[in-house]
């Protein structure tokens, strides 16, 4: 694949010393179609250059209190590692409100976590576990999922498209926990729209999923909402682990977010001296939505509208279907 016209650092940040593995990821994302995979890779590298993605880890969201507001409304963090060494990312799907900042800050924060994962966490895990590790697992907490989140679909579609087009095949598994009835209804219509390789990655677990998750990770790596059975993502910051550190992996005070934020601020200082900071996001061009993501979003929107209109609630097959999947 011809990539000589792109910066060496850009491709290096993409493959982190494993170019063949990176190419295979893009090939998988396009079902083995070489021309489509080539175009996808070229488009990704162009996106990185045009949006200065290689510099995004030196662009902190400031001031810290404002960034805390982003973290408190975009529930995403890392709780530990699987027994095989893959980072475990937790997502508070149901209780993320995305209402403390503009869409650009949430997109910036999401990309920064992706880049920190790929440039720092995965290479460190590869070294620690003495084998190449290039993927993660995600635990998605559905606590609090409700009809009003219909307004968030645009933002979530943008983020999903960025991941699909520029960070393909970076998650090995998606574990759904604390799923309410409304999720069962949405999952029933969304599942057939997913590509087979994606469907195989999704597992809907019973309750908080603790027993199943303990098969692939140690207790200390479980997200806080799994360890605190019934607590969900709503468990606020302030609770401490036995070693005195923040327990809630979504909180800015958690070890992961402290390391990430300190790293970004240090990179920023190396680029230019500290100065009076103002609220200013790092704008990234939003890609054309992935058609598959759009179809999924439309299906979710349609299903949620049925709930808001009082339709479909009495369908007993939804709960039965959900229980069978568990």
Please work out how many helical segments DSSP would assign.
Answer: 13
Helix-strand pattern: HHHHEEHEHEHHEHHHHH
Number of strands: 5
The largest sheet is: 5 strands, mixed
Q: Could you say how many structural domains there are in total?
A: 2
Write the CATH homologous superfamily of the largest domain: CRAL-TRIO lipid binding domain
Provide structural commentary.
- This protein has 2 domains: 43 residues, no CATH class; 232 residues, CRAL-TRIO lipid binding domain (Phosphatidylinositol Transfer Protein Sec14p), CATH 3.40.525.
- The protein has a 5-stranded mixed beta sheet.
- The radius of gyration is 20 Å and the shape is globular.
- With 326 residues, the chain is α/β, with parallel strands linked by helices.
- The N and C termini lie far apart (43 Å).
- InterPro entries: CRAL-TRIO_dom, CRAL-TRIO_dom_sf, CRAL/TRIO_N_dom, CRAL/TRIO_N_dom_sf.
- This is CRAL-TRIO domain-containing protein.
- It comes from Lactuca sativa.
Can you describe this structure in just a few lines?
The chain has 326 residues and is α/β, with parallel strands linked by helices. It is 47% helix and 9% strand.
């Amino acid at each position: 694949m011809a990539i000589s016209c792109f910066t060496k650092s850009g491709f290096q940040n993409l493959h982190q010393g494993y170019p063949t593995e990176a190419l295979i990821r893009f090939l998988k994302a396009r079902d083995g179609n070489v021309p489509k995979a080539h175009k996808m890779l070229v488009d990704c590298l162009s996106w990185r250059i045009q949006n200065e993605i290689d510099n995004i880890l030196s662009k902190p969201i400031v001031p810290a209190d404002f960034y805390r507001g982003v973290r408190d409304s975009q529930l995403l963090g890392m709780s530990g590692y699987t027994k095989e060494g893959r980072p475990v990312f937790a997502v508070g799907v149901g209780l993320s409100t995305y209402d403390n900042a503009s869409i650009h800050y949430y997109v910036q924060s999401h990309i920064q976590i992706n880049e920190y994962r790929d440039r720092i966490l995965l290479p460190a895990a590869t070294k620690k576990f003495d084998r190449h590790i290039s993927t993660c697992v995600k635990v998605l907490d559905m606590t609090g999922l409700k009809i009003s989140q219909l307004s968030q679909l645009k933002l979530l579609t943008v983020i999903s498209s960025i991941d699909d087009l520029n960070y393909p095949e970076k998650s090995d598994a998606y574990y759904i926990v604390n799923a309410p009835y409304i999720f069962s209804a949405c999952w029933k219509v969304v599942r057939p729209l997913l590509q087979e390789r994606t469907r195989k990655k999704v597992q809907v677990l019973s309750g908080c999923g603790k027993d199943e998750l303990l098969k692939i990770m140690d207790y200390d790596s479980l997200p806080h909402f799994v360890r605190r059975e019934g607590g969900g993502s709503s468990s606020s910051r302030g609770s401490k682990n036995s070693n005195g550190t923040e327990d809630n992996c979504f909180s800015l005070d958690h070890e992961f977010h402290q390391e990430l934020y300190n790293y970004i601020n240090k990179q920023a200082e190396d680029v230019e001296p500290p100065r009076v900071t103002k609220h200013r996001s790092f704008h990234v061009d939003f890609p054309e939505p992935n058609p598959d993501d759009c179809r999924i979003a439309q299906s979710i929107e349609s299903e949620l509208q049925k709930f808001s209109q009082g339709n479909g609630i009495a369908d007993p097959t939804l709960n039965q279907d959900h229980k069978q999947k568990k």
